[in-house]
Amino acid sequence: MHADTTFLWGAATAGHQIEGNNTTSDIWALEHRPDSPLPERSGDACDSYHRWPEDLDLLAELGLNSYRFSLEWARIEPEPGHISHAQLAHYRAVIEGCLRRGIVPVVTLHHFTSPAWFSAAGGWTAPDAIQRFRRYVQQVRPILDGVPWVCTINEPNILAMVARLRSGDDPPESERGEPQLVAGALPPPDPDVSAALFAAHQEARAELSDLAGLRSGWTVANQNFQALPGAEALRPEWSYPREDQFLDVAIDDDFVGVQAYTRVLLAPSGPVDPGADVRRTQTGWEFYPHALAGAVRHTAERTGGVPILVTENGIATDSDEDRIEYTDAALRGLRDVIDEGVDVRGYLHWSLLDNYEWGSWGPRFGLVAVDRTTFARTIKPSGRWFGERAQVGLAPA
Ligand code: BGC
């Protein structure tokens, strides 16, 4: 029995990062370009396309009550207008697999990848992009029966920042070989892509609005912008295009997803490196577990009471002690924020599996290790620890 049955305790993944052979997607195409900026390819990934029942069994074995995963638009609509009923049936089976095991499905409709044809035709700013996305949502609508949480678009703010990579334009030298996108160091979101994503989100929500019991929202990358002395005036100005305008869009949503990993320090000239002495994770980010509490507080202030679901939080490390230390501190911070009165509905750790980190297999975020050749899964001590924590609640004595 879970200590608090309504609170979601789970783990998160995304299709392209775990399924393998997502060959009709734009990121697969980008990985295979001769001049690809992505040093490593996704390949078979974790073979979760075939091994999803095993993944769900792992969640159940850990005692977790929810799973966030994404549908691959590229599989469902591999060519414009061609809907694969077999792929819809595949994802319906995953949803039913969750429900059968008592695992609450949290389904993301778009997690960074689009069909290759969609991006080749101009991506989010093409004249018919929003209608195409809405038609995709219309197609997946019937398989969402029984799904209480739907995330329309994952990290639209990051998507709008890296729009240039996806469009196939050559990224500047500074972004090459830098798969772990550090939000603070990225260019500001493309305003046209941002506006298109706002519209796409609203259209998707409208398409799903009459499904009983379904809550929809989107998940924003919270960057914890912190002003160093002298940069106080810059902070809101910096944060608005990169984060706050995306939170403002969520004000009427059923929930908002918070995703937080680290912080970004702002000097009057812009983001600065936290310095050689700070503890870092495999992605090079500062080890900063307070990021979660900061992000939840900021999201609550900005959205004014929209229910919050932590849809991602975690750490890339080979040290399981560090993963436990980081997650424990993040959860304690979350408890404080809840005690302050913020409406938080759950915590989904990133990630269930060591997976493909958008250009690299180096960073390991998983509670479960995956052998890259046999695809054998091995629960890490941090996975066991997290499962036990889920039974105890947010702040053990
Ligand atoms: C994304 C994930 C990614 C994680 C760690 C988030 O930006 O939604 O796909 O793997 O952070 O970098």
Any overview of this molecule?
- This is Family 1 glycosylhydrolase.
- Keywords: Glycosidase, Hydrolase.
- Belongs to the glycosyl hydrolase 1 family.
- It comes from Lipingzhangella rawalii.
- The chain has 397 residues and is an alpha/beta fold.
- The protein has a single domain (8-392), classed as Glycosidases (TIM Barrel), CATH 3.20.20.
- The strands form 3 sheets. It has an 8-stranded parallel beta barrel, surrounded by 5 helices. A 3-stranded mixed sheet has the order 6-8-9, with helices on one face. It has a two-stranded antiparallel sheet with strand order 12-13.
- It has helices spanning 15-18, 26-31, 48-62, 73-76, 85-100, 116-120, 129-140, 156-161, 163-167, 191-208, 234-248, 291-303, 320-339, 381-392; strands spanning 8-12, 66-70, 104-110, 149-154, 215-222, 225-227, 256-260, 264-267, 270-272, 308-313, 344-350, 368-370, 377-379.
- Helix content is 38%, strand content 16%.
- It is built from 14 helices and 13 strands.
- The two termini are 19 Å apart.
- β8 (264-267) and β9 form a beta hairpin.
- The structure holds beta-D-glucopyranose (BGC).
Helix and strand topology:
Layout: E1 8-12, H1 15-18, H2 26-31, H3 48-62, E2 66-70, H4 73-76, H5 85-100, E3 104-110, H6 116-120, H7 129-140, E4 149-154, H8 156-161, H9 163-167, H10 191-208, E5 215-222, E6 225-227, H11 234-248, E7 256-260, E8 264-267, E9 270-272, H12 291-303, E10 308-313, H13 320-339, E11 344-350, E12 368-370, E13 377-379, H14 381-392
Parallel strand pairs: 1-2, 1-11, 2-3, 3-4, 4-5, 5-7, 6-8, 7-10, 10-11
Antiparallel strand pairs: 8-9, 12-13
Bound molecules: beta-D-glucopyranose (BGC).
Beta-D-glucopyranose binds near residues 14 and 312.
Organism: Lipingzhangella rawalii
Protein name: Family 1 glycosylhydrolase
Family: Belongs to the glycosyl hydrolase 1 family.
